[in-house]
Design goal:
With about 280 residues, this protein is α+β, with helices and mostly antiparallel strands. It contains 7 helices and 19 strands.
Length: about 280
């Protein structure tokens, strides 16, 4: 199944199930509240009647978590290598996942224009990522059981102000500017995604391919990420975990290749879909 959050012409937002060119509304105020329900109750909240035409609404981020978006740094070997090379340092792979977060105010929807401000950064970069949506409150999840707490998967672009990230010595500020975390276009359930550890990820800028890899090349697998993050810390239904980006990002290229006003960005993930956004820098 594919789950969306949509906005009608009168500004009302609601969750729903995508069915071809139509959406079957769900009778909860938000997708996060729907995800928090027990599975039998979820089925009861899906309404087969009163379908909404997809082309009559605007898709929003499929879910807005109750708190920051969790992210993983340097989780693809080739990306770790290119980052070390660009920084002129020796490659040292982490022994455990490196987590950071993006503020919820950074979240944007599919097909949204990302309004970025030149006065705050001159080095906006792209990072195509597969994101996990957690399906239940959980803590201390064993790695062998971790996939059981996954509600579904979606696409995410970890837009990053590299100069802010570099100058501050930590990542939160450079990762959390408004409109720097588009998510979507929908959440796809695990049964439709299949093996999430063998999905192709592609990023295109204005139609030109910049990144291509597979989730098989993650340093830390999806179950490991969930197990590590949930150690001693409760994950909430609707939480989003971005799993890292492949090689090919802008700051590591020669010369560096940062985003420009008018760029069209596409994050394509096999069995999930294409997250498309336009950049507006002023």
């Amino acid at each position: 199944m594919r789950f969306v959050t949509y906005r009608t012409a009168d500004g009302r937002t609601a969750p729903g199930v995508l069915d071809g060119d139509s959406i079957a509304p769900i009778s909860t105020p938000t997708m996060r509240e729907y995800i928090a329900l027990a599975p039998p109750e979820r089925i009861a909240r899906q309404r087969a009647a009163e379908l909404v035409a997809l082309d009559a609404v605007t898709l929003e981020s499929p879910v807005r978590p109750a708190r920051n978006v969790f992210c993983v740094g340097r989780n693809y070997l080739e990306h770790a290598k290119e980052g070390a090379r660009a920084a002129g340092r020796e490659l040292k792979l982490p022994r455990a996942p490196v987590f950071f977060t993006k503020a919820p105010t950074a979240i944007a929807g599919p097909d949204a224009t990302l309004h970025l401000q030149a006065r705050h950064s001159s080095e906006y970069d792209f990072e195509a990522e597969l994101a996990i949506v957690i399906g239940a409150n959980c803590k201390d999840v064993p790695e062998a059981e971790a996939l059981h707490v996954v509600f579904g998967y979606t696409g995410l672009n970890d837009v990053t102000a590299r100069d802010l990230q570099r100058e501050r010595g930590q990542w939160f500020k450079g990762k959390s500017l408004d409109d720097s975390c588009p998510i979507g276009p929908w959440i796809v359930t695990p049964d439709e995604v299949g093996d999430a550890q063998s999905l192709e990820i592609i990023f295109r800028r204005n139609g030109e391919e910049k990144q291509r890899d597979t989730t098989a090349h993650m340093i830390f697998s999806i179950p490991r990420l969930i197990a590590e993050l949930s150690k001693g810390m409760t994950l909430l239904a609707g939480d989003v975990i971005a799993t890292g980006t492949p090689a090919g990002v802008g700051f590591a290229r020669t010369p560096p290749d940062f985003l420009a006003d008018g760029d069209i960005l596409e994050v394509e993930i096999e069995n999930v879909g294409i997250l498309r956004n336009t950049v507006a820098i002023a």
